[in-house]
Amino acid sequence: MAMVELVRSWIALRDFAHFAHINVQGGHFFTLHKQFKKLYEGALDQADTIAERYRQLNPDSVIQMTGGDRTYLEMSDRQLVQEIITQLSSIRQQQNAIWANTNATGDYVTNDLMVQCSKYVDFVMWQFNEFLK
């Protein structure tokens, strides 16, 4: 079930990054507009990869998605970036927990997937943290 929650978290990040992409304005528009687009596209790729692995392990299950009615309020560029970092940090924690579990159970394919996903998260978090400096 942890992998399903992780897929949902990546989809939530994708939704928020898309919101940020279409609402960013001001002096950092060109930089952030492009980065937010890369993030929402990357988040979708991450969610898809994790969902596919989940389905390999659980071929008879369906990943249920709920929500879609989130409300995002107007935010400054810094607030948008900080929220993305917060969501990425939560995703990183989820991935670490799955990594630890799969390391203990010997599921090295999922374990490696979590390592690759965490590399992506670390890189993106570094980029957005640099923006906040």
Main attributes of the structure:
mainly alpha; 133 residues
Radius of gyration: 15 Å
- Summed over residues and divided by their number, the pLDDT gives a mean of 94
- The beta-strand count equals 0
Main beta sheet: none
Number of helices: 4
Which geometry do the CA atoms define? globular
Walk me through this protein's architecture.
- By secondary structure, the chain is an all-alpha fold.
- The protein has 4 helices and no strands.
- It has helices at 2-23, 29-57, 77-105, 108-132.
- The longest helix is centred in the N-terminal third of the chain and has 29 residues, at 29-57.
- 27% of the residues are buried.
Give the structure's gist in a few sentences:
This protein has helices at 2-23, 29-57, 77-105, 108-132. It is mostly helical and 133 residues long.
Record the SSE blueprint.
Layout: H1 2-23, H2 29-57, H3 77-105, H4 108-132
